[in-house]
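Running co-folding for fe (ii) ion.
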Amino acid sequence: MQKNWDLKRLIFNISSLVHLGQEVTSSKGFNEKIKGALYVVTGIFSIPRAALLIYNSRLHSLDLLTSKGLKGIDGTILRIEHRHIKVLKKNEIYSIKELQNNPFYKQNETAFKTLQTRTFIPLFVKEEFLGALSLGRRLSRTSYLQSEADTLRAIANQISTTLHNSNLFKRLARKATENKKLYENMRHIYHNTVQAFAAAIDAKDVYTKNHSNRVAKISVAIARELSWKDKDVEGIYIAGLLHDIGKIVLDRVVIRSKNLTNAEMDEIRKHPKISYDIISKIKFPWKDISDFVRHHHERIDGKGYPDSLRDKELSDGAKIIALADAFDAMTTERPYQKKRTLNEALIEIKECLGTQFDGNISKAFFKTIQKEIKGELKDPQVLPYLDKDFDPSIIIMLLEGIIAELSA
Ligand SMILES: [Fe+2]
Ligand SMILES: [Fe+2]
C-alpha cells in the first residue's frame, strides 16, 4: 500500500516537475519564473512558508529574492563567507538539525528563525554558488521520502540553472553594452575617415568645397522623408560623401574649366564610373552604395550617363543622390553656371520632373524642405547649408502648390 502511494506521489511529482520545467523555460520574465518555481515546490510538498535567496558575491550575503507565506521578512539577509560555501554540499537537502552545528547557521540563527527554515538547499551550478532555497515545515509534518528528496533535488537543479542563466544574461547584457560603445566608437572613426576622404575629393575644386558633405546631408533628408530604415539612411549618407570620389583622378584644370571641349567633357563624364570602380572594391556594410554612386548622373529619360538607364532601371538611392547633387550644383556658384536662388532652384527641379528627376523622390525633397522651413524637423539637413536670402513664406507657398500638384 505504502509503495503504491509512493508511486502515485512520484508520478504527481514528475508531472509537477514537467510543469516547473515549462515554467522555467517559458518566455516569462526572470522574477515571474522564480516566483513560479517557488510556488511549484511549495505546492508539491505542501509547504506553506518558503523563501528563495540569491547570493551576492560582492557583499558575501544571501539576499531575499522571493518568498511565500512569510510576513515581515523584508530586508532579511544571511551572511555567508567563502569558507562556509566551500563546505556546503551542492544542491543537497539539509534539515535544520543537520545545519545547526554549522558555523554558518550559528552566524545567522535569527534570520533562519525569521524564515522559519526547516529545510535548506544550497543552489549551485557546477562550482558556482548562486543562492539557496529555504523551506518551512510541511503541512504533513513528515520528512521527505526518498522519491520526494530526488524530486526536490531535481527542482533545486532547475532553479539553480535559472539563476545561473540570469547571471549569464546580465553578464552578456553588460558585454553587449560595452560592445555597442566600441562599435559606436568605430563608427565614429569610420565616418570621420570617409568625411576626410570626401574633403579630399572636394579639395580638388574650390568651387565645390563641401559639396560632397551637402549632397550626403540632402540625401539623408530625402531618405528620412521616405521613411528609410536608419541603417539604409546611413548607407546613403556614405554614398553621398563618396559619390564624386572618381574626380580624384581627374585633372584639376579640367574640373575647373569654364568652356569645356568635347574631349574634356567626355573626361569629366567618366567620374561616376571611376567612383564605382573604387567603391565596389571596398567592402561596405551597405551593399547598394556602389550602385548609387555609379548612377548619380543618370536621368529618368535615359539621357544621363554612364549607362543611360531609365526611370524603372534606376534605384531610389541613385535617384536621391542625383537630385541632391543637382540641387547643390544649382544653389552654389560654379565656373560654368550662375548660382540660382532657392526659389529658382525649386522651380527648375519641378520643370525637370519626369525628364531629369523622379516625381516621388522630388516630392519627398519638397516636403522635407517645407518641414525644415516650418521648423518641424529636429535635425534639419538642408536649410543650414543654404543662403538665407529667401522669403520663407514665399517658399512655403511655392512648395504647397508644387506638392498639391504632385499629389493630384
Ligand atoms: Fe558627380
Ligand atoms: Fe557631385
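Result summary
The chain has two domains: 2-174, 204-407.
Residues 373 and 392 are 7 Å apart (CA to CA).
Job closed.
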